[in-house]
Design goal:
The strands form 2 sheets. Strands 5-4-6-7-8 form a 5-stranded parallel beta sheet, with helices on both faces. It has a 3-stranded antiparallel beta sheet with strand order 1-2-3, with no helix packed on it. The protein has 193 residues and is an alpha/beta fold. The chain has 2 domains: 6-35, no CATH class; 39-192, Rossmann fold (3-Layer(aba) Sandwich), CATH 3.40.50. The longest helix is centred in the last third of the chain and has 18 residues, at 165-182. Helices cover 35% and strands 19% of the residues. A hairpin with a 7-residue loop joins strand 1 and strand 2. The chain has 6 helices and 8 strands; from the N terminus they run E-E-E-H-H-E-H-E-H-E-H-E-H-E. Residues 137-165 are annotated as: Disordered.
């Protein structure tokens, strides 16, 4: 990859960047025009969509990750609030999480930015709002936020989820992500499952 230094051409007053040494004018709006353009969407929506899965246990996270395939690829699994705050901005920007993976859930393929974040029912809505604010401006494109419905949150001292829970949760999350993709995946949205 070649790094070109850009300088603003104020003398011309045309609102262009000049790339040295070739002096090819590039409109200032180039980044904004291409970032969310149809070709941008097509390139990030073709194939499996990279997602970050946030859950409390690998016992649920691993089967959810597997059940999301082939349409949705879990690239990283996060288990704590602190890790969400530290790692999620990097993953949404298309960078590795800057921390060694603490589990074997997901592909750990960070070559494409995450386009969706799925939270298990162990996360509080207040925390998710903090995460969304903390990552604002980090994402390389619109992001789907898929969250366990607070009205269906299990009691903290309740029994473990029943057999088959991971498949049901994955199917519900897929449904919401399918809706987002069908609507164009062109804006940040919050979905409850």
């Amino acid at each position: 990859m070649v790094l070109l230094l850009a300088t603003r051409s104020l003398a011309r007053g045309r609102g262009s960047l000049l790339l040295n040494p070739s002096k090819i004018p590039i409109p200032l709006s180039f980044r904004a025009a291409t970032k969310f353009s149809p070709s941008y969407k097509m390139s990030t929506l073709s194939g499996s969509l990279p997602v970050v899965l946030c859950g409390r246990t690998t016992a649920i996270g691993k089967p959810v990750s597997e059940a999301l395939l082939p349409d949705y690829e879990v690239i990283h699994f996060i288990q704590t609030n602190e890790a969400v705050l530290a790692e999620l901005p990097h993953l949404l920007a298309g960078r590795d999480p800057q921390a060694a993976a603490s589990n074997d859930v997901g592909t750990h393929d960070y070559s494409r930015p995450a386009r969706a974040v799925i939270f298990g029912r162990g996360y509080e809505m207040e925390d998710i709002e903090v995460f969304r604010k903390a990552t604002s401006g980090s994402a390389s494109g619109p992001t789907a936020w898929v969250v366990g419905d607070p009205a269906k949150k299990p009691k903290s001292n309740g029994p473990p989820p029943p057999a088959g829970y991971a498949k049901v949760a994955a199917d519900l999350a897929k449904e919401k992500l399918d809706q987002w993709k069908a609507s164009g995946a062109d804006k940040d949205e919050l979905f409850f499952y």
